[in-house]
Amino acid sequence: MALLDIKNLTVSFETSTGPFKAVDGIDITVDKGEVLAIVGESGSGKSVGMLAVMGLLPKTATVTADKMEFEGRNLLTLSDSERRLIIGREISMIFQEPIASLNPCFTVGFQLQEVLRQHMGMNKADARARSIELLELVGIRDAGDRLGSYPHQMSGGQCQRVMIAIAIACNPKLLIADEPTTALDVTIQKQILDLLMRLQTEHGMGLIMITHDMGVVAETADRVIVQYKGHKMEDADVLSLFTAPKSAYTRALLSALPENATGDRLPTVSDFVFDAPRAGGAA
User: What region holds the Cyclic nucleotide-binding domain (predicted)?
Assistant: First the structure.
């Protein structure tokens, strides 16, 4: 049984010109211990699809699927109380822009301990001790002192580490990382990716890495889904994707990488002609 099994997922929003499909009939599966990268341009529906899994889309969104199961449990029919038992504990997410995702009005210690007390039933003392362990685990120095810091008192890299600590606090079975290295300098990006991969290996988590960075895909993923305009263009193991891409869109993405430049001008995706499939298959 797949850890996460999604069939024909569609997410649409009402606009002044009618419904807009941000995700249009995609299939996604993730197995235990697998690293899946979802790659595509901004606006391709990568984050929206995962927010649908988390149940975090606004009420104006319409989410439908033939199947959306986590370990055989139907995520589409869960009550709010049933969902709260899973989301944040068994399925967790690292959001884009860590400084914006952390609450500026509360210390990082409070925000960590809130997760532990809510989902793990810890008392205040145990939650504080575990919070220090988590901050140390993700490489925060002077962890005990940092519990009293507010997000604005920490760097972007430190806030990202705090977000990772919050996300793994309950040892989730599935971790979704949405552009986890955005807006970080190259050195910190490498540290964050190494940290995520170490934690994934140590805890045997399924990991979904949402990114537009093909270098991150090559370094981290077992399997890759390529999305374009809400459609799944390709689903392949990482070696096959880079050596023998089947989709014209995937070939366009790879051709636009700086290392693949063959002339004075680097190609862009718009230089290529292709259509999105009608359903979730490859183009």
Answer: 26-65
